[in-house]
Every structure is written in C-alpha cells, then in structure tokens.
Amino acid sequence: MKKEYWVILIAYIAMQFSSIIGIPLVYLLGSFFGYKQQEMQFSAIVIWLIFSFAITLLVVLVLLRNEIKNPMRNSPASAASSIGWAVGGIFLSLFAQSAASMIEGLFGVTQGSENTERLMTFVEYSPAVILVISIIGPILEEVVFRKIIFGTLYKRLNFFFSALISSILFAVAHNEFIHLLLYASMGFTFSYLYVKTKRILVPIFAHVSMNTLVVVIQLNQDNVQKWMEQSDQITKFIGGF
After folding, report:
1. What's the 3-state SS for the chain?
2. pLDDT (tens digit, 9 = 90+) per residue, 198-226?
3. Residues designated catalytic
C-alpha cells in the first residue's frame, strides 16, 4: 500500500477518536471566552465535528493531489458512461438499501439509524453539519473504504470478499453493527460502481446523493408523512371504483 494511503487511514482513524480530546478542548475554550456552559455542552460537539471532518478532508486532498492531477488507472469508463453509472448508482443504492431494510425487518431489526438520528439533532442546532453528512463524510468514506481498503483487497481477493471486508469495517466505523446488512448492501453497491467505472468520483457522487436525500427526507418528515397519507387516500379512493 502507498505511504500516502497509510497516512490517510491513520488520519481517518485519528478523526474518529479525536472527539475524546477535541470536544473537551472546545468546551474549555468556549467557557474561557465567556460562553455559557449549558450552551457549550452541545455546541462543542458540533464545532469539533465540523472542524475534524474538514481538516481530515484537507489532509486527504493534499495527499491525493498527484493522483487527482494524474489518475493512474487502466481503461476507465468514458465520461458519458461514468455519468450514467453515477446517476444510475443512486437508484441502485436505493434499491439495495430498501432490500436490506426489508430483510433486516424479517429478523426483527428496528428500522432507522441511531447514528442518523443523532446527526440530525446536530443539524437542527447548526445547518452547517449538513456539509459533513452530505458531502465531506461521503467523500472521506469512499476514499477510505472503497479506494484504499476495497481497492487494496481487490488486488489480492475476489470482489465478494473485498467488498464484504470493507463493508464490515464501514459498519464498524459507524458503530452500527446491528445494521451490518444495510451497510454491506451499500458497500457492495459503491464497490461495484467503483470497479465498473474505475473512477472513485462515481461512488462518491452516488454516496453524496444518497446522504443528501436522507437529510432532505429527515428535515421534511412532516411533509413526507402528509404526502404518504394523501397518496394512501387517493389509492383507496381509486380502489373503490
């Protein structure tokens, strides 16, 4: 594995555990500058979340600057084909996620993600967190779990085991082992898009779109619920004829 990849992995892991030191540090600084302790208890989490993700993304972009300028890949998909797979990847991801959720339901796994709910609480406090959920997070995850981990494993193992191992690590990073099947479905989908096009931007686009869609739905739950109720009423009305 390249030296730059190891540094990126270390930076990503450090980011995951940085809150242990970072959040108390922000809290103390806020208190020092006169902010109320009750306010800083929540804002410290949000500030460090945005800061740590932004810094890690900057590190990744700097380390991969040469690959961005001169990507080393054999026979990548054409621009038109890549765009098609990027857009189609959104629907493929939705299908995979829906199928995984249905299977999890059969085994009694509660739908919904505690991780997503927690992040949406932060969004309500600061809309800037949307950048982390919708853009920065997906970019980092695709670079780490698809480009580096999956890509490295794929050179030695077949697609199934490479995608499976990287997807398990993907679930572990989100601290949601209970939704392993869900994360595996997403991992296999994004890995397939990467292998199919040999362009990491394709799964990044699909991942960003998926996360953005989740955020939009979560922020408009009341409107979505009303729309579903109206659709159900229309269906019943039509069925009455």
Report:
1. CCHHHHHHHHHHHHHHHCHHHHHHHHHHHHHHCCCCHHHHHHHHHHHHHHHHHHHHHHHHHHHCHHHHHCCCCCCCCCHHHHHHHHHHHHHHHHHHHHHHHHHHHHCCCCCCCHHHHHHHHHHHHCCCHHHHHHHHHHHHHHHHHHHHHHHHHHCCCCHHHHHHHHHHHHHHHCCCHHHHHHHHHHHHHHHHHHHHHCCCHHHHHHHHHHHHHHHHHHHCHHHHHHHHHHHHHHHHHHHCC
2. 899 999 999 999 888 888 887 776 655 55
3. 141, 174
